[in-house]
Specification:
The complex is a heterodimer.
Chain A (H helix, E strand, L loop, with lengths): L1 H12 L25 H6 L2 H28 L1 H6 L2 H28 L7 H14 L2 H26 L6
Chain B lengths: L1 H21 L4 H37 L8 E6 L6 E6 L9 E8 L8 E2 L10 E4 L9 E10 L2 E4 L3 E4 L10 E10 L2 E9 L13 E9 L6 E6 L3 E4 L7 E10 L11 E4 L6 H27 L1 H8 L13 H6 L2 H8 L15 E8 L41 E2 L21 E8 L6 E2 L11 H9 L7 H17 L5 H19 L21 E6 L5 E5 L9 H4 L3 E8 L3 E5 L24 H6 L7 H5 L7 E3 L8
Parallel strand pairs in B: 22-24
Antiparallel strand pairs in B: 1-2, 2-5, 3-4, 3-6, 6-7, 6-8, 9-10, 10-13, 11-12, 11-14, 14-15, 16-18, 17-19, 20-21, 22-23
Classes of the chains: A mainly alpha, B alpha+beta.
Chain lengths: 166, 637
């Protein structure tokens, strides 16, 4: 059930973000903790660890997203100059991602018996750091992390249920 | 160039020092000197610059070497999201050997750590290849290329690369196109495999596919997005054409691969349901037409038959009307024939020539021809007409159709035998008048008929033919005898006739029917002719059947077999006509009647008689095979 819900969530909620060659001047706040960054690494990681990684990423994005949404919504200058597209994107991303996030967090925490000792500290520090990021950097980091999570979820799905389009 | 600059600077410096010394004593002088120094400095600077430029160009023209041009990074690509490579475009090399080196920094590592490309060879010329060890995903690489030669180096603009977003896979592989039908409509099922290096099994890469096809003679490609599945059904096909199929793939964040190798598939022609219905319609129409034709043929069967197989026309005698003959009006018949005053009105019976004929009733059609005198007669049997049985006795019902052909000099009837199944031998009597033709019509099996004309004819000459029935009966009895030996060969029939003839002759010793000698022209003859054998002492005209010894007859006598009897005088004399066709010849004969057996046919009876031996008789040239035609015997009856 976990895998199925994971796969369903993945397909439905993750955003198809446009391909951009971003100029990373600053690291994303989520690069704080190690995540597998290669195929072998990812396949070497067992399911539980991978699931935890996913969860950690998702959790660390909860606050920055909320802040970002708020800053976009309340920024009058930005609403004047930028097109409604950015607003739509941020709205949508926040809404969808947050909803998905909540669900996923709930599911995974249940499966992992809710053991996240380092999450709160991580999230708080991460959110502080994220506050200083510029908007485009934030978006770039968000897009990358969402792709990473999607890839991890796909790996998990093909490991658990291999016959569905793997 | 630096030397020159130094020299220039020194020169400037000296001038400045001198000027400063000049202005060190007095302040106003100092101001003036400063101003002058500035002006000189400017002038000197400009001159220096100009001087430097001049020198530089001089140097370039003489040697041609410069620092390298700026290289340009073209692209970086990863085929399977595990390794990647970058390619650059070198600038001008400045005439000197220039080497290129690629440097990169990674986001995660220390910012100052600059690494150089680990592999310049694998990906080709002007490339850098990063294998698995050096590849990290979701990390931004900052890559730049530096061109360096003896005179200088040049670095390119940096490129920021995140490997996860530069994936361009290889082409899809193993493309198979299969033709299938669904509801009698063909569709194409295209299957393929992902490139073997892309790991889709573990979910590391997710590929989307696109298929395109085009008719060989078509102009544009028709593209279909296939999603993540590895097969696709194409329905928009034109039968009878060759199609080209290609597939390409793309990761969810990346670039489209190249189009795969072309697969050719031919769509065979097939019967569309519309065509089938057309064929059914054609079949129904043809059946209808066939039925109509069959009905038409059935209706018009006879006329078609006559058209396709025209009946063989029978012989036609000009002026001879069969209907008249049937009707029995002999005068009209003969008048139509053009004979005036014939028969002699006094007594037709004189001209009556009768001879007994035996017809074989076997299943044979006998055609008899009187070949000796080049007379041809055909026997025609028609079963259509029914004759009354007026003349025959209890014999079989077959009659003969006799068609007598006219001859120039003689007349005689020919007898043909009708085919009859009973195989009985019949004796049919023939009555013929001189110069007249008689036709006997045959009847079918059922009736035993004589032609009416004949019967009437006979009745008219009753006195001469009174014994017909009797003879007929006798003949029939004989015929029955012969029937027992009945066979189909003419030779046998001849035997029969001979037998018949012999028995008759045994009784009569005067005249009897005999078979005629077979001429080469006829297979069988049942006509029998009596031969005048000789004149015996009693002045009897002995008539003998023609024997096989006919051959011994001198040819000149063949034509003279027949003699007409012109008349009978006082019941005893046979007036024979010479064989000249003229009537009323002087030859006469006498015959007696007493020797005639009353049961014999009248002709015979009349013929036999005492014939006085006279030289006239010899003049008659009655040979052994003489034949007396008692055409003129009627009077005596």
């Amino acid at each position: 059930s976990l895998s199925l819900s994971l796969s369903l969530s993945q397909e439905k909620y993750f955003l198809p973000v446009r391909n951009q060659i971003g100029r990373a001047t600053r690291k994303c706040h989520t690069s704080r903790f190690p995540t597998p960054n290669g195929k072998e690494n990812a396949q070497r990681t067992d399911r539980e660890e991978l699931t935890q990684v996913i969860l950690r990423i998702l959790v660390s994005w909860m606050d920055p997203l909320m802040q970002f949404h708020q800053s976009i919504a309340h920024n009058e200058e930005l609403s004047k100059f930028s097109s409604n597209r950015a607003l739509e994107l941020s709205d949508m991303s926040y809404n969808v991602f947050s909803v998905f996030q909540m669900q996923l967090v709930g599911i995974i925490s249940n499966s992992l018996n809710g053991v996240f000792p380092a999450e709160e500290s991580l999230s708080s520090s991460a959110s502080n750091e994220a506050r200083h990021m510029r908007d485009y950097e934030l978006l770039h980091c968000f897009r990358r992390d969402s792709d990473k999570v999607q890839n991890y979820l796909k790996i998990l799905k093909c490991r658990i249920v291999p016959e569905h389009g793997c | 160039m630096s030397f020159l600059f130094i020299g220039c600077w020194w020169f400037t410096k000296d001038s400045l020092v001198s000027f400063s010394k000049a202005f060190s004593s007095k302040p106003s002088v100092l101001e003036k000197s400063l101003k002058r120094a500035e002006r000189m400095k400017e002038a000197c600077g400009a001159k220096c610059v100009l001087f430097l430029l001049f020198v530089q160009t001089w140097l370039v023209e003489n040697t041609g070497h410069t620092s390298p041009g700026k290289p340009v990074l073209l692209r970086c690509r990863s085929p399977e999201k595990e390794t990647f490579a970058c390619w650059w475009q070198p600038g001008s090399d400045g005439g000197l050997s220039t080497n290129y080196s690629l440097y990169y920094t990674m986001e995660g590592s220390l910012e100052d750590a600059v690494h150089e490309c680990p592999d310049y060879k694998t990906a080709g010329l002007n490339s850098c290849y990063f294998n698995k060890t050096y590849t990290s995903l979701w990390i931004t690489y900052t890559i730049s290329v530096v061109a360096q030669n003896a005179l200088g180096s040049k670095s390119s603009d940096p490129m920021f690369v995140d490997v996860a977003y530069i994936v361009q896979p290889h082409k899809p592989e193993n493309i198979s196109a299969e033709l299938r039908t669904q509801d009698q409509k063909p569709y194409l099922m295209v299957k393929w495999e992902p490139p073997h290096k892309a790991d889709t099994k573990s979910g590391w890469i997710t590929l989307h596919y696109e298929i395109r096809l085009k008719a060989e003679k078509g102009a544009e490609w028709e593209s279909h997005y296939a999603g993540q599945q590895k097969q696709f059904n194409v329905f928009s096909l034109h039968p009878g054409e060759v199609y080209l199929v290609q597939v390409r793939c793309k990761p969810d964040h990346g670039f489209w691969s190249e189009w795969s190798a072309t697969t050719y598939i031919e769509i065979p022609d097939y019967f569309r349901p519309r065509d089938t219905s057309v064929w059914i319609l054609i079949a129904v129409l043809s059946v209808c037409i066939f039925l109509i034709l069959a009905w038409t043929v059935a209706i018009k069967c006879n006329s078609i038959k006559s058209y396709l197989l025209p009946p063989v026309p029978g012989p036609k005698i000009i002026g001879f009307d069969t209907q008249l003959l049937k009707s029995g009006k002999s005068e009209d018949l003969l008048n139509a024939l053009g004979c005036q005053g014939f028969p002699p009105t006094s007594d037709c019976e004189d001209l009556l020539v009768e001879f007994l004929e035996v017809d074989d009733g076997d299943e044979q059609k006998l055609v008899m021809n009187e070949g000796e005198d080049d007379l041809e007669g055909r026997v025609k049997s028609s079963g259509n007409e029914v004759d009354n049985d007026s003349g025959r006795g209890s014999c079989d019902s077959h009659t003969l159709l006799l068609e007598v052909s006219n001859s120039s000099t003689k007349t005689y009837a020919q007898v043909g035998s009708n085919s009859n199944n009973k195989g009985s031998v019949k004796l049919s009597r023939k009555c013929s008048t001189n110069g007249k033709l008689l036709r006997f019509e045959t009847a079918g099996e059922k009736t035993n008929t004589w032609p009416t004309a004949n019967s009437s004819f006979l009745l008219a000459r009753q006195s001469s033919c009174y014994n017909i029935s009797k003879i007929h009966r006798e003949a029939c009895s004989l015929g029955n005898k012969a029937d027992m030996h009945g066979n189909t060969s003419s030779a046998h029939k001849s035997k029969e006739y001979r037998e018949l003839h012999s028995t008759v002759s045994g009784d009569q010793k005067t005249w009897f029917a005999d078979e005629k000698h077979d001429t080469p022209l006829l297979p069988f003859k049942s006509a029998e002719y009596v031969e005048v054998q000789r004149l015996n002492q009693q002045s009897m005209l002995i008539l003998k059947p023609k024997t096989e010894g006919h051959k011994s007859v001198p040819p000149e006598f063949i034509g003279q077999e027949y003699t007409k009897v012109s008349g009978v005088v006082s019941d005893r004399v046979l007036l024979l006509l010479r064989d000249t066709g003229a009537q009323g010849s002087s030859d006469t004969q006498e015959g007696e009647n007493q020797a005639v057996h009353p049961s014999l046919q009248c002709q015979v009876g009349k013929m036999v008689g005492t014939i006085p031996a006279s030289p006239a008789l010899e003049g008659m040239q009655l040979a052994a095979s003489g034949y007396v035609d008692t055409a003129a015997l009627l009077q005596s009856f």
